[in-house]
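User: Predict the complex with copper (II) ion.
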Amino acid sequence: MAAGIAPAAAAPANHQFVIAIAGMRFGAAPAGLKVGDTILWVNRDIVPHTATARDRSFDVTVQPRQSVRVILRRAGAIAFYCRFHPAMQGRLAVAAR
Ligand SMILES: [Cu+2]
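Assistant: Here is the predicted structure with copper (II) ion placed in the model:
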């Protein structure tokens, strides 16, 4: 290996996680989230939903049968909900990288 070149395995890898929305509920939040990871919000319902962080770090509308990517930009416990159906709620635990 050439001097000064780190092995590829040492590079921090960003991962994509899926949260499905179905039956007017968010699916379980994945474990092991880190800053820089992506959430793919997948709406399996026939009505639009949003994934809206209470701290406004993300706010996306997901049309029926569509999906939207959100990159996690901050660490912490991030509560989220749907602006159209405020009873729909969840929480992400995002670790610093
Ligand atoms: Cu909704």
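The mean pLDDT is 92.
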